[in-house]
Amino acid sequence: MAFFLLGHTNRIDAATLSGGTWNSLYPLTNLQDAALARVARSVGTTSGASTIVIDCGAAKDIRTLGLVNHNIRSTGTVRLEGSNAVGFSPLVADSGAVTVYADTVAANPTFTLDLGAVYLARYWRITISDSGNPAGYIRLGRVFLGDGWQPTETNFSWGKILGIENPSVVSVLPSGRRVVDVRPPSRNQKYQIKDLTKSDALREVFQIAWTHGLDKEVLLFEDPADNTYADVNNFLATIRQLPAIEYPYLDAYSAAFEFSEIIA
Fold first, then answer.
1. Kind of pairing, strands 186-196 and 253-261?
2. pLDDT tens-digit readout, 190-216
3. Which domain of life is it from (predicted)?
4. Is residue 166 very low, low, confident or very high in pLDDT (cuts 50, 70, 90)?
5. What is the DSSP string of 98-121?
6. Three-class SS of residue 170?
7. pTM score, two decimals?
8. Angstrom distance (rounded) from CA 152 to CA 174
9. In whole angstroms, what separates CA 251 from the centre of its chain?
10. Which of 162, 192, 171, 166 is nearest to 257 (CA)?
11. Largest Cα–Cα distance in the chain?
């Protein structure tokens, strides 16, 4: 099992997007709107039509990719490439074509990809291959392209929680009839990581909490090496409770994390 991975510092909103062939009513700029219902749609399903070139303006640290509210089938693939040349030669990073896992849980299907290390590059290209998709187009509601942090020496502790929140309101009428105001469920996760290094605690966890607050997006990978249960464990989220750095004993650091899924 690989260590927990936290995608952070989404670069998409400050970037310039181009490439592919995208419907003018559903343009690429919709991906820079945090509302998942504001989608981009390609014209056709060829990989050429559904390519996205992301210019970060300057070289940025990138490790994690998330495609949220997509309609890519489990026979489709996603490739992420990074370069410091606009023509993508030479490449700094290349995921290769990664098969999209089926998402059987979320109302907004999510695909997550880990490059395995942090790479520094200005230009990034996402190539989606799902020729023959019956919708006639590729749909995306949000792209997360960001940095990633993994604890250096230890994974999360026993007691990790994966929960479901259902805000539906149940009322009982005087007659005894139940009336339900149905609202969509969402997931939450709680982690505690003990024995953090000082650098992990103060240069990573503290800085992510400071810069992201309760509103900025993060991307969760419970186990970046596991695609079998990625549809359950990996999702776009916000920090629900900011982690406090604990000092249980000399030269030891610990932090607890709590996350809430973004569903709209």
1. antiparallel
2. 999 999 999 999 999 999 999 999 999
3. Bacteria
4. very high
5. EEPPP--S-SS-EEEEEEEEEEEE
6. strand
7. 0.95
8. 58
9. 32
10. 192
11. 72
Hey, what domains does the chain have and what are their CATH numbers?
5-149 (2.60.120.260), 161-261 (2.40.30)
Neighbours of 133 (CB within 10 A): 19
The full DSSP string for 21-63 is -B-TTS-GGGGGSS-TTS-EEBSBSSTTTTEEEEEEEEEEEEE
Which pair of structure tokens corresponds to residue 166?
A: 């259902």
Q: Are strands 77-83 and 91-94 parallel, antiparallel or unpaired?
A: antiparallel
- As a whole number of angstroms, the distance between CA 21 and CA 43 comes to 6
Tokens 């945090």 map to which residue? 34
- Each residue of 244-253: b (16+ CB within 10 Å) or e? ebeeeeeeeb
Name the residue among 254, 235, 24, 59 with its Cα closest to residue 157: 254
Q: Could you tell me the two tokens for 160? A: 């990790």
d(CA 9, CA 219): 9
Nearest CA-CA partner of 216 in 192, 200, 240, 184 = 240
Tokens of 53: 């070139």
Q: Pull the structure tokens for residue 72.
A: 């890519």
For the stretch 17-43, pLDDT in tens is 999 999 999 999 999 999 999 999 999
Looking at residue 156, the DSSP 8-state letter turns out to be: P
Residue 152 Cα to chain centre, angstroms? 21
